[in-house]
Automatic annotation (TrEMBL), chain A:
<dbReference type="InterPro" id="IPR030564">
    <property type="entry name" value="Myotubularin"/>
</dbReference>
<comment type="similarity">
    <text>Belongs to the protein-tyrosine phosphatase family. Non-receptor class myotubularin subfamily.</text>
</comment>
<dbReference type="InterPro" id="IPR022587">
    <property type="entry name" value="MTMR12-like_C"/>
</dbReference>
<dbReference type="InterPro" id="IPR029021">
    <property type="entry name" value="Prot-tyrosine_phosphatase-like"/>
</dbReference>
<feature type="domain" description="Myotubularin phosphatase">
    <location>
        <begin position="204"/>
        <end position="665"/>
    </location>
</feature>
<feature type="compositionally biased region" description="Basic and acidic residues">
    <location>
        <begin position="702"/>
        <end position="722"/>
    </location>
</feature>
<protein>
    <submittedName>
        <fullName>Myotubularin related protein 11</fullName>
    </submittedName>
</protein>
<feature type="region of interest" description="Disordered">
    <location>
        <begin position="702"/>
        <end position="811"/>
    </location>
</feature>
<feature type="compositionally biased region" description="Polar residues">
    <location>
        <begin position="724"/>
        <end position="736"/>
    </location>
</feature>
UniProtKB/TrEMBL annotation, chain B:
<dbReference type="GO" id="GO:0016529">
    <property type="term" value="C:sarcoplasmic reticulum"/>
</dbReference>
<feature type="domain" description="Myotubularin phosphatase">
    <location>
        <begin position="199"/>
        <end position="578"/>
    </location>
</feature>
<dbReference type="InterPro" id="IPR029021">
    <property type="entry name" value="Prot-tyrosine_phosphatase-like"/>
</dbReference>
<dbReference type="Pfam" id="PF06602">
    <property type="entry name" value="Myotub-related"/>
</dbReference>
<dbReference type="GO" id="GO:0046856">
    <property type="term" value="P:phosphatidylinositol dephosphorylation"/>
</dbReference>
<dbReference type="InterPro" id="IPR022587">
    <property type="entry name" value="MTMR12-like_C"/>
</dbReference>
<dbReference type="InterPro" id="IPR010569">
    <property type="entry name" value="Myotubularin-like_Pase_dom"/>
</dbReference>
<keyword id="KW-0963">Cytoplasm</keyword>
<dbReference type="InterPro" id="IPR011993">
    <property type="entry name" value="PH-like_dom_sf"/>
</dbReference>
Length: 811, 689
């Protein structure tokens, strides 16, 4: 640990000089940059600059205009406000400032002249001096810059040209140069390779991660298997997967062939009521089932449970192509492109929104996830999500279920772990779906964005139940459009690991002084990509501070072990013989098609024939009752469910409840500005303000309760003619103990910020250090002078055991 | 007053389908003997009652409900459950005048009867013959009640049905309105502190002119309504206008408000077009001249009846719109769900709101940017003129964004401005459909859009607006009961006991956390003209678009000019008003109420901590008894820890049958409704910030 931090320190020391060098280097391109400093990344070159530019602020930023200087570098379009503070040279490089946009996120550049607007492409020529520059971004932002009359015309024209030439519209292959511009410099590589994995979240990159998750959820009967460690069994699966404990690796290996792409049923999560959530691809049908195979397959599907519900996500859910189409339509509707001059009349906006079908798809995902969440609540079954590929909708639904049911997933760390678990390591095809390379559009579909929208819907309905805020989701949404993060730059964990730099390794903490990556000359083309979760790299601390709610962090309770919480099911369900019952949940009803499990259907195996029986209608209706019972929740009447944190957050899905994510899709569309209260630095959100005030008052209170003895001493000073030495000594101990006490107080008050005040009040009253200190003062200084009967009464509840001990210390 | 017993006793056997429910069996065993009686308001008289009546909860597929007694009084229809009286958990937010099972007679919008499974709209003709097995009452505040009459005695059922139908649907005289028999006296403290300016005395008008620095002339000649009965007792006209009596029968430009630059907004009723052209033109010229004389000799006129929808259009559109929210059973709602947005759009209500706001923005532009006087005209001068002039004032003058200012504005423009509330709200159930139109509601809708978009600029919250929109139909208040000042005067003169509470706002309003300086705000607008930045102005929309853009370029000043955004996604449905009774869309423990509760909680913490701190600072001997207090405060919030998103209106008390996942499987499930009490103390939700 220590050595590691030493290295970072060293690099920090080094970066500035290097940066200095680069700046002087880049000053060839930009004259007079010493006046208005842009805090460049190491190796970043400023290509063009325009002064006296005003940027239009969105309503969220406070509205109005901000004047400053516009820069175009190899990597980004940067805007530096006039009165911005001089950046601290020693600070870690931050990729994007608050007003910047990366070139790769830009979708369209439009110049607005006195009489016309023009879409600027790298090849076209501008016949007028632009008064205004509008940048349409892929992440649905619209940046609008206004050139002043005093801006030199050449600067306005030049910067427009420069941006248009360098932003690389839809050109395959150019992505690499962008990545290099951002991260390619030696200093940057060095800096990145010394950054740490966030230890608070679970990365699921080693077996430890999975074991932690098993422990966290209290799942028993499962183990982490490394059978796919070298990606031999399945190329798209992660190296580790969780399978039933009793299944040996050799047995497990035989099951891979029975599933599409070898994506066998894998454990994802356990509901505290004892149900397990699994996901898998569709069955390979044209394969012979041997007896042993069948046994293994059954065992991998059922885990330790006797009941298995397969949730089919293939049919009802939107296909990736649908999602892509809907998203494209939504984009055109929301962006309000001034260059295309096709705009929806205001009175037709709602029906056009409906016809994009985006909200329908959001609703569809949420509904499916809510059903699964209700099902899981019943306990003692495995719920297996099945999708032909197991790489799109399974990710969406599986993670949504967990967001709904598991309060841990509603914290930032938990949510990041969740995305890491269900998307990144699980092999969602980020690279093809986001289509950074613009090579073929066939695969492109913003499935992950759909997921983020779904989470936002939940967040919008239950804001108090989440630790993270809309800003966090928005930051994640924007990062998806930035081709710089290892998380999104591969289709599977295998691809990620095969990269030359092999990031997971370069990111693992190394003991001893880490050598600088000398391998840079060999692979100059591939900078190391950081994971998207390294927020400090991307955003300033101001923006990061808005990622979490100011107050009310949902307390994450310890998991209920063994899942014995709710076992009020009919026993008859799952104690009748080995072959558990399998049901299919499709279109919101349960059924039992005979070919649900291919090996159980008909003549493939005689092994189960004698045991096979039609599933009793009782258990079928029992299941439906279960689903019903959950959705008919009565939280207000049952106080225990009210406080059950695992009570799923069920979203309301009716027409008026599913809404457009205005903060994202409409955040800077030119026509829709007045939605949110401005949350600029000067005016905080009222919650922020109040929470801050509470914090302040608490500190004051803590101080006041301290200062009192101090005040008393001061009042009595003139009357006393004691030797100074004594007083100083006393003061010294007093101050010392008081300062140590405030430092103790700090975390406790933070910890209590989200709990209620009552325990807090008690705590402050019966805080252990205080009586010590008071007695301290009495003994050495105030003894016999001031009698405080009240205080004596007051601090009676404090543990008396500590008193003599500290006495001994002080003397 | 009206003897119902005398209605013919011939009984036609009703044919109905009886649904056997468990409750029914129980009922036969032990018919409740003692009738519970409603707590009558002072002056309230009970007409008839029937027992047992089954009140259905909202889903009619399940036929589930509560038995009780239905009463009809001269104030309301009320249902008292036989079951244990449900204790209100949060009494503080309850409406003081009516509870969750009360329907004040004026709230009734339509009554449907179910005869042989067929639903028919009840009109006067149907009352005579037979009574339905079930009556469905649609209220103007969008509640829906369903009562089953089949369990009660035929005679009683008939009586109650006819009683309800008679009192709710028949045309009646103003004297029958409950307000005239209400004998409740407003609390003395209310009498004392009257912060709302009522604009019923010359002083009020002088004061208002002084406040806005207007130099117009106060007219007192109409004190006895000699000039016109359609004009208020006192009003203000441009000082250039001469002898008023010579213009008798024609409209006057009536002063509404003066911009700080000196230009002013006037409204006038357009004289009837039947007049001979020359005369009309001459009079119109005089009016314009008088208006122009006010400031810099520039004036613009705007004929609202040309550019805005007629009041009949407004009425039709609202009728269509409200149907989406009058939910009788949840299945209907789920079915409408798929086409939600397009069906909303087809009603055109949102577009009418947009048009009104658009027009107001145009007027604001004339005043603010061009500094010209504006005269808005309309045939009556009391409908859309009121909407536009009030909106303009709210946008321009921060005073009207405070609670008291807003109430004064309603008094000035609507009540003193002679908006025909009686006709427009159709309080008396007149057959003449022509004059009924929810113009005032349209105004509140427009204000809601503004509040929604710029909530920090307003002292009041949307809950206040919702309650106000209900109060319009509350037959206790005199504010919204008359057609004009003359009408009010003449009715009240003949009324022997002048007992009407004069204001609609019952409880004294607590001050919110709103910045106090708002009351004494001065506009700090700097009119900066920035170069236009896009588009070519070829239509009026584009021009005002430009105005909006230039306004947007300035930093937002909540104490200055406020313009609404009018684009497609910006004009929204007033969720709180329209969806508050629909349990399916309530988010339990979520929605904006969750944030609000959190804020309240934090605020109380701040207050407590401050108090503790003060105690500590002031007295050396800290009193240990502050802790119970904190506990107490927190408990009051703790009980409301998980409020539904419809908070002050519908509680989650009996929402035990709420399917959350609208799947095919769920649709056949049962529901109970959660019609709940309504708060009167909207003030506690005065918007934060």
């Amino acid at each position: 640990m220590l050595t590691g931090s030493k290295t970072t320190f060293k690099v920090r020391q080094m970066v500035p000089d290097m940066k200095e060098r680069m700046m002087s280097h880049s000053s060839l391109h930009a004259r007079g940059r010493d006046v208005l400093g842009l805090c460049c990344l190491p190796g970043e070159c400023v290509l063009q600059r325009a002064v006296l530019v005003r940027k239009k602020l969105s309503a969220k930023e406070g509205g109005g205009w901000l004047s400053g200087t516009l820069f175009c570098t190899h990597f980004r379009v940067a805007f530096v406000p006039q009165d911005s503070q001089k950046p601290d040279d020693n600070a870690d490089p931050v990729l994007l400032g608050d007003h910047d946009v990366a070139l790769a996120s830009i979708d369209k550049v439009v110049a607005v002249g006195p009489s016309r607007t023009k879409l600027v492409t790298p090849t076209c020529s501008l016949k007028f001096t632009p008064e205004e520059l509008v940048l349409y971004c892929r992440d649905l932002r619209v940046l609008c810059f206004l050139f002043d009359r005093l801006t030199p015309d050449t600067q306005a024209v030049e910067i427009t040209y420069t941006i248009a030439k360098t932003y690389q519209p839809l050109k395959p292959g150019t992505i690499l140069s962008f990545q290099n511009a951002a991260l390619g410099s030696i200093e940057m590589k060095q800096f990145l390779s010394n950054r740490w994995h966030d230890p608070n979240m679970n990365w699921f990159e080693c077996s430890m991660g999975w074991e932690q998750e098993l422990e966290r959820t209290g799942a028993s009967g499962w183990r982490v298997s490394s059978v796919n460690d070298r990606f031999e069994m399945s190329t798209s699966l992660p190296r580790f997967s969780v399978v039933p404990q009793r299944l040996l690796d050799t047995e497990l290996k035989k099951t891979f062939a029975h599933f599409n792409e070898g994506r066998i049923p894998r454990w994802c999560w356990r509901h505290p009521h004892g149900s397990d959530l699994l996901r898998m691809a569709s069955f390979q049908n044209n394969i012979y089932h041997e007896k042993d195979d069948i046994r293994n397959l059954e065992s991998v599907l059922f885990g330790g449970q006797q009941l298995c519900v397969i949730v089919d996500l293939g049919e009802e859910m939107p296909s990736p192509a649908d999602i892509q189409l809907a998203h494209t339509r939504l984009r055109t509707l929301c962006l309000g492109d001034i260059s295309s001059s096709v705009s929806v009349p205001d009175d037709k906006w709602l029906s056009t929104l409906e016809s994009t079908r985006w909200l329908d798809y959001t609703r569809c995902c949420l509904r499916k996830a809510a059903e699964v969440a209700c099902l899981l609540r019943g306990g003692h079954m495995t719920v297996v999500l099945q999708e032909p590929e197991d790489r799109d909708m399974n990710c969406v639904v599986c993670s949504l279920v967990q967001v709904m049911c598991d309060p841990h997933c509603r914290t930032v760390a938990g949510f990041q772990s969740l995305v890491q678990k269900e998307w990144i390591t699980a092999g969602h095809k980020f690279l093809s779906r986001i289509n950074y390379h613009r090579e073929s559009d066939k695969e492109e579909a913003p499935v992950f964005l759909l997921f983020l929208d779904c989470v936002w819907q939940l967040w919008a309905q239950y804001p108090a139940r989440f630790q993270f805020t809309e800003d966090y989701l928005l930051a994640l949404h924007d990062s998806v459009h930035l081709p710089l993060f290892s998380s999104f730059l591969a289709n599977s964990q295998r691809e990620r690991c095969r990269r030359p730099q092999h990031l997971p390794q370069s990111y693992t903490p190394v003991n001893g002084l880490r050598e600088l990556p000398v391998g840079a000359p060999e692979e100059p083309v591939d900078p190391p990509f950081p994971p998207v979760w390294d927020w400090a790299l991307q955003y300033s601390s101001l923006r990061r501070s808005r990622f979490t709610q100011p107050v009310s962090q949902p307390a994450c309770p310890p998991p209920v072990l063994n899942g014995n919480l709710n076992t009020n099911l009919d026993r008859g369900w799952h104690n009748d013989g080995l072959p558990g019952s399998v049901f299919l949940l499709s279109r919101s009803t349960f059924s039992h098609p005979s070919n649900l499990l291919p090996w159980r259907s008909g003549n493939s195996g005689s092994y189960w024939k004698s045991h096979r029986r039609a599933p009793s209608s009782e258990s079928l209706s029992g299941l439906e009752r279960l689903l019903r019972a959950c959705s008919l929740s009565e939280p207000s009447e049952n106080p225990s469910t009210l406080h059950d944190p695992y009570e799923p957050l069920l979203p309301l899905l009716l027409g008026p409840c599913v809404r457009v994510w205005r903060g994202c899709y409409l955040r800077s569309a030119l026509h829709a500005q007045a939605f949110s209260h401005p949350t600029s630095s000067c005016s905080q959100h009222p919650l922020d303000q109040l929470a801050w005030e509470v914090q302040q008052l608490r500190e004051k209170l803590a101080q006041a309760s301290h200062r009192r003895p101090e005040n008393q001493t001061k009042q009595q000073e003139p009357r006393r003619l004691e030797p100074n030495l004594n007083q100083n000594a006393n003061n010294g101990t007093f101050l010392f103990s008081s300062s140590s006490r405030t430092s103790q107080q700090q975390p406790s008050s933070q910890g209590a910020a989200h709990s209620s005040v009552i325990p807090k009040a008690q705590r402050t009253a019966s805080d252990p250090p205080r009586p010590v200190q008071r007695n301290n003062g009495k003994h050495t200084f105030l003894f016999g002078h001031q009698q405080e009967p009240q205080s004596g009464q007051r601090y009676i509840p404090s543990p008396s055991a500590k008193l003599p001990k500290r006495h001994g210390n002080s003397h | 007053m009206l003897s119902l017993g005398s209605v013919g006793a011939k009984s036609t056997k009703p044919s109905f389908v009886s649904y056997v429910t468990p409750e029914e069996i129980k009922l036969e065993k032990e018919p409740p003997k003692k009738l519970k009686h409603p707590d009558l308001l002072p002056g309230e008289v009970e007409f008839c009652s029937a027992n047992p009546i089954l009140k259905y909860t909202q889903d009619d597929l399940s036929q589930r409900g509560v038995f009780g007694t239905l009463f009809c009084t001269n104030f309301r229809i009320t249902f008292i459950s036989d079951e244990k009286s449900q204790e209100e958990t949060t009494k503080t937010f309850k409406n003081k005048l009516y509870g969750e099972n009360d329907i004040p007679l004026m709230f009734v919008d339509h009554i449907y009867g179910v005869y042989d499974e067929k639903r028919k709209l009840i009109t006067g003709a149907l009352v005579k013959n037979k009574y339905p097995s079930k009556i469905i009452i649609h209220c103007k505040d969008l509640r829906v009640f369903q009562f089953c009459l089949t369990y009660t005695k035929e005679e009683d059922a008939k009586k109650i049905f006819q009683g309800i139908a008679h009192h709710c649907l028949e045309e009646k005289s103003l004297k029958c309105v409950f307000a005239f028999s209400y004998t409740g006296t407003p609390s003395p403290e209310m009498q004392r502190k009257r912060e709302t300016i009522l604009f019923d005395s010359p002083e009020d008008w002088t004061q208002e002119m002084k406040r806005t620095k207007a130099n117009c002339r106060l007219v007192t000649e109409n004190e006895n309504f000699e000039l016109s009965q359609r004009l208020p007792k006192y009003f203000v006209i441009p000082s250039a206008l001469g002898d008023l009596f010579s213009y008798q029968g024609k409209g006057f430009p009536i002063w509404c408000w003066s911009h700080y630059s000196g230009c002013a907004l006037f409204k006038a009723s357009l004289p009837p077009v039947t007049q001979e052209d020359g005369d009309f033109q001459k009079h119109f010229d005089i009016m314009i001249n008088a208006v122009a004389h006010n400031y810099l000799y520039s004036a613009k006129t705007e004929d609202l009846s040309e550019s805005l929808p007629t009041i009949q259009d407004i009425q039709q559109s609202y009728n269509k719109f409200k149907q989406f929210f009058l939910i009788e059973n949840s299945t209907d709602f789920w079915l409408s769900d798929m086409k939600w947005f397009s069906s909303l759009e087809s009603s055109g209500w949102l577009d009418i709101i947009r048009q009104c706001l658009q027009k107001a923005v145009e007027v604001v532009e004339c005043l603010e940017k061009d500094n010209t006087n504006v005269l808005i005209t309309e045939e009556e001068g009391t409908d859309l003129c009121c909407v536009i002039s009030s909106l303009v004032q709210i946008m321009l003058d921060p005073y009207y964004r405070t609670l008291m200012g807003f109430q004064s504005l309603v008094q000035k423009e609507w009540v003193a401005g002679c908006h025909a509330f009686l006709d427009r709200c159709n309080h008396l159930h007149q057959k003449d459909k022509e004059c009924y139109s929810p113009v005032f509601l349209l105004f509140l809708e427009c204000v809601w859009q503004l509040v929604q978009q710029h909530s920090p600029a307003f002292q009041f919250s949307e809950t206040y607006l919702t309650v106000l929109s209900d109060s319009v139909h509350m037959p206790v208040f005199s504010t919204f009961l008359f057609n004009s000042a003359h009408h009010r005067e003449s009715v009240l003169k003949h009324q022997r006991q002048l007992s009407l509470p004069s204001t609609a706002f019952k409880t004294p309003f607590k001050k919110g956390f709103f910045k106090d300086e708002t009351d004494s705000l001065k506009k700090m607008l700097r009119v900066k003209r920035l170069s236009r930045w896009m588009g070519s102005p070829d239509s009026t929309a584009a021009i005002s678009r430009e105005f909006y853009e230039s306004w947007q370029q300035r930093p937002l000043d909540y104490h200055g000019l406020l313009l609404p955004c009018l684009d497609g996604p910006a004009v929204r449905v007033w969720m709180q008003r329209y969806l508050r009774w629909i349990p399916e869309v309530h988010i339990l423990g979520g929605g904006s109420v969750a944030v609000m509760t959190k804020l309240m909680e934090l605020l109380s913490q701040v207050q407590d901590l401050k108090r503790v701190l003060e105690q500590r600072d002031s007295s050396q001997a800290a009193k240990p008894d502050h802790r119970p207090y904190i506990q107490h405060r927190l408990l009051s919030f703790g009980s409301s820890g998980r409020l539904p998103s419809s908070f002050p209106f519908a509680y989650s008390r009996n929402r035990s049958f709420k399917p959350i996942i609208p799947t095919g499987l769920m649709q056949c499930l049962m529901l109970t409704d959660s019609l709940a009490s309504q708060e009167d103390e909207a003030s506690s939700f005065v918007s934060l910030v």
